[in-house]
TrEMBL record:
<keyword id="KW-0694">RNA-binding</keyword>
<feature type="repeat" description="PPR">
    <location>
        <begin position="732"/>
        <end position="766"/>
    </location>
</feature>
<comment type="similarity">
    <text>Belongs to the PPR family. P subfamily.</text>
</comment>
<dbReference type="InterPro" id="IPR011990">
    <property type="entry name" value="TPR-like_helical_dom_sf"/>
</dbReference>
<feature type="repeat" description="PPR">
    <location>
        <begin position="592"/>
        <end position="626"/>
    </location>
</feature>
<keyword id="KW-0689">Ribosomal protein</keyword>
<dbReference type="Pfam" id="PF00833">
    <property type="entry name" value="Ribosomal_S17e"/>
</dbReference>
<feature type="repeat" description="PPR">
    <location>
        <begin position="377"/>
        <end position="411"/>
    </location>
</feature>
<dbReference type="GO" id="GO:0003729">
    <property type="term" value="F:mRNA binding"/>
</dbReference>
<dbReference type="InterPro" id="IPR002885">
    <property type="entry name" value="PPR_rpt"/>
</dbReference>
<feature type="repeat" description="PPR">
    <location>
        <begin position="557"/>
        <end position="591"/>
    </location>
</feature>
<feature type="repeat" description="PPR">
    <location>
        <begin position="522"/>
        <end position="556"/>
    </location>
</feature>
<dbReference type="Pfam" id="PF13041">
    <property type="entry name" value="PPR_2"/>
</dbReference>
<dbReference type="Pfam" id="PF01535">
    <property type="entry name" value="PPR"/>
</dbReference>
<feature type="repeat" description="PPR">
    <location>
        <begin position="837"/>
        <end position="871"/>
    </location>
</feature>
<feature type="repeat" description="PPR">
    <location>
        <begin position="487"/>
        <end position="521"/>
    </location>
</feature>
<feature type="repeat" description="PPR">
    <location>
        <begin position="697"/>
        <end position="731"/>
    </location>
</feature>
Amino acid sequence: MGRVRTKTVKKSSRQVIEKYYSKMTLDFHTNKKILQEVAIIPSKRLRNKIAGFSTHLMKRIQKGAVRGISLKLQEEERERRMDFVPEESAIKIHEIKVDKETIDMLAALGMSDFPGIVEVEPQPMVPTQGFGRGGGARSATNTTNPLSLSTKLRLSTKFSPSPLLPPPLETTQTPEAETQEKTRKVDNEAPKTDFCQKGKIFIGNLPNWIKKNELSELFRQFGPIQNVILINGHNETERNAGFGFIIFDGTTAEKSAMKAEEFDGMEFHGRVLTVKLDDGRRLKAKAEERRNWVDGQDGVDYRSKWHEEREGSTKAFRKVLDTQPENWQAVVGAFERIKKPARRDFGLMVGYYARRGDMHRARQTFESMRARGIYPSSHVYTSLIHAYAVGRDMEEALSCVRKMKEEGVEMSLVTYSIVVGGFAKIGNAELGPYLRTLCRSHHLWKKPLARVEWILGGYAYRISQSCNMNRAEALVREMEEEGIDAPIDIYHTMMDGYTMIGNEEKCLIVFKRLKECGLAPSVISYGCLINMYTKTGKVSKALEVSKMMESAGIKHNLKTYSMLINGFLKLKDWTNAFTVFEDVIKDGLKPDAVLYNNIIKAYCGMGNMDCAINMVKEMQKERHRPTSRTFMPIIHGFARAGEVRRALEIFDMMRRSGCIPTVHTFNALVLGLVEKRQMEKAVEILDEMALAGVSPDEHTYTTIMHGYAALGDTGKAFEYFTKFRNEGLELDVFTYEALLKACCKSGRMQSALAVTREMSAQNIPRNTFVYNILIDGWARRGDVWEAADLMQQMKQEGVQRDIHTYTSFINACCKAGDMPRATKTIQEMEALGVKPNVKTYTTLIHGWACASLPEKALRCFEEMKLAGLKPDKAVYHCLMTSLLSRATVAEAYICSGILSICREMIESEFTVDMGTAVYWSKCLRKIEGTGGELTEALQKTFPPDWNAHYSPEANYESDIDDEPSNGGDNNMFLAGLHPHDEPSNQVEISSSSSSHRSCMSMDINSIGRTEVAFIGFDGAVHIASSH
C-alpha cells in the first residue's frame, strides 16, 4: 500500500509551514527536530508523517504555486528566488530600442509603421557574475542581444528560429584561477552577525545590598531606562551577586549606552564600578547552541530547553525514589511532574508500587505506559509480576508471563525467581514442580548451575518461611536427584525454618548434615543454632554454641550478639544482657539500632528509666534514628510506674525526633496504666488517640477490658466489648478471655456460659486459657462438679491441660472439702508428666489446713521440699497459720513443726507484716499465755518495730471473736497476708500475632484489698477470696 496521509497530517503540515517557514528546510531530519521543539505531537509516527509531508510541501513551493499556502508567502519566496530585479520595466510604451534585424522582420510582416520603434547599434555582451540560486549560470550562457525583440516576445521563436549555439568549450582552471575564485566566494559571503544588543551595558563591582531603584537613579542621567537587571546571589537570594545589566530605551538607546560607558571607573558607594557595552555573549551563545542543535555534531547531544527540563524532572524523580521511598506522596508527585515519562521512568514507578505490594496502581501505571505507545521491556514486566507476587495474586502473575511469551519478550532469571518465590509464599507446592519444569525446558536451565541453585534456594526459603518443612525437605531431595548439590544457604534456610517451628532435633540434624557434606559452618550456621536456643529459652546452650563458635575461630557479629541479648531479656536477666553489650563494645563493633533498642528495653525492665533516656540520646549521637519501637518500653515503664506526666514527655520527645506515634505506642501507655489499675487515665488515652488521628485497634480495647475484668467491673468490660464490635474490629479468643475473666471475677458464671456460647457461634475454639478461667470461676464458688465437667470436656476436645488447669481444679476440690480428689489429681498430674509447682502445693496445703488436718499439711510441705521446690512467703504463712490454729491440742508434732518452720523462715530472712504478727501473737497468747519457747522463736519473724507498735499488756478477751474461720472465704490471715500487702501472683495475658499484641503481666491482687488470689484467671493460684 502507498502512504496514507490523513486530514490531520495535511492540515498540521500547512500550519507549521505558515508559522515557521523561516525555520523549515528541505531536509526531513531537520524538520523533524523543529517539530519536536515547536509542537506537542502524541506519537513519533504522527510526527514523522507531518515532517515528511512538510518537507514535500517545501519542495513544491520552490517549483511553483501550492494550494493551501498563503499567496503572500509564496510571492515572497519567488522574490527571494529571483536573481536580479531591474530598475525599469523591460517593455517601454513610449520608446522601444531594437536592432536592424528586428526592423527587417517587422517590415516583412507589414508592420514597419509601428510607433515608438528606434533603431540602435548592437553592443557586445559581457557575461556577468550572477547572485543567488543559479543566477550566474544563466547570465553566462545568455549572449543574445538585449535589444532584439525576440528576447521580449515569447512567440518570436516561432517566426524566426533561434540561432545554433556553438558547442561548449572545455575549460581547465589553473591554480591561480582557483585561488581567485575562492577569494571571490569569500568576498561574496554575507557579513558576520553582530550579536551585541544595542543600548545594553554591563555593570560590575556593585555593592551586594544595592537595589534596582538606586541603580536606576544613577544611570537615568544618560537616557531613559527600559529595564534594570540585577543577578541574585547563589547563597543569599536577598542580595545580588555584585553585577547586573541596564537596558536603555528609546531611539537614543545606543548613544545613551555609549555615553554611560565613558563613566567606566566611577565611584559608587565606595566601589569603583565597571561599565562596559554589551559584548553579545548571551545572544551569541544562544545562536551557537541553536546552530549546533540544528546542524548537529558527532558525539555531542545538544538538547532543547524542553529536553533539559524533562531530564531535570527525571533526575529529581529518581533522587526522591532513592532518598524518600517511604514518602509515597513525594514519589508520586515527582513522577507526575515529568512531562513525558520514558520507559525507564515507568519501569521505576511500577517497581516502586511492586515493593509496596500495591498491584492495582502498578497495573494502572503499566497500562498508562502502554497507552502512550511505549512497549514494555522485560524489566517492566518483571516489576509487574513482582507486584502480583507480593499481593499473592499468582493468577494475574501467570497471565503476565503468558503475555510476555505472546509479545516475544524474553523472561529473565529474576522473572523466574519471582514467580517461583510467589508460589512458595502462598504455600502452593503443586505448582512448584511445574515451574521448575518450565525452567528446565527453556534456555534458563542451560545457564550456570549457581543461578539455578539461586532460584531453588529462593523457593526453599519461601517454603521454610511458610513453615512447610516437609515440602522443603522434598525440594532438597529433588535437587540431589537432579545432580544439584545444595549450597550452604539452603542448609541455613532449613535451619531457620526448623527454628521457626521449634524443632530442635531436626535443626541439629541439618547442622550435622552440613558438616558431613564438607561445608565449613559459618557465623550464619552458628547464628541459626543460637537463635533456636534463645527462642526456646535455653540460653545456657546458646552460650555453649557461642563458645564452640569462638573455638572454631569465628567471631561474633551484631546479629549473634543481639540474639544472645534477646535470650537474656526473655529471662529478665538484665545483668547478663549488659555483659553481652560490653562484649560488643570490647570487640570494636558499633551497635546498630536493633542493639540499642534491646539495651533500652533492658534498662526499662530493671526500672532504670534515666539510663534508658540517656541511651536514646547516645543512639542519636551515633546517627541512628530512633523509631517508635525505641520509645515504647520507656513509655510503658513510666506508665507502669504511675508517672503519666513523664510518659507524655517521652511522647513529645518521640515526636521531636521525627517519629510519628502509632497505635502500638499508645497501647504501651494504656498497658502501663492498666497494670497500675488507673483505668480512668487509661480511658483518657483513647481521647488522646482520637485527637492524634489514631484509631484504637483490637489490642487497645482488649487491654482495657482486661483491666476492668481484674477489677470485677463486668458492666464496663461489656461496654468496651460493644464498642469493639461496633467499630468492625475482628473478634478473637483474647477478647472473649477478658469477658470471661470479668464474669468469673464477679461470680456471674451464667454470663460466662453465655459468652462461651457466643464464642461457639463465632467459630472461635476454646483454648487452655479459656478453660482455666472457667475452672477458676467454678473453683471460687466451690463447685467441684462443674469444674470436673470442664476437665472432662478438655479431654474430649483434645485441649491440653497444663499446670494452671490442674492447680485450678485442685483449688476447686479444696474449696469443696474433697481432699481425696485433690490428692488423686496430684497423682494424675505426675503420671502425665506434669510436675506440681509451688502454687500447686500452696493450694493443697491450704486445703488440708481448711480441713483441720495440719499433719497432712506438714507432710505436703515436706513433699514439696523433696521435689526440689523452694517455699515462698505464702507457703510459710499458710502453713504456720494452720499449725497455730491447732496448737491448743498440744500435739508434739505441731510444736516441733512450728519451731522447724520458724528456723527456716529466719534462715530465709522472711519477715511478716504487722497484721500477720498481731494475729499470730493472739494465737500464741492462747497457747503459752505469757510467753514461751514458741513465742520467742516466732517473734524473730515479726517486724523490727513490733514492740513499738504493739503492747503486750493489751486486752485479748476479744481474740476468739476476731479469729477467722478456716473454712470461710475471708482467709486473708490464713494465708499469712495483710490487706495492705500486694501479692506477687501474676496473670499472663498472651499476645495475638495477627494484631501485634505484646505479652503483659498483670497483678490481679493489688486492687482487691480484701482478698488474696493465688490462681489467676489463666491458671495462677488463689488461696482465698471475698466477693
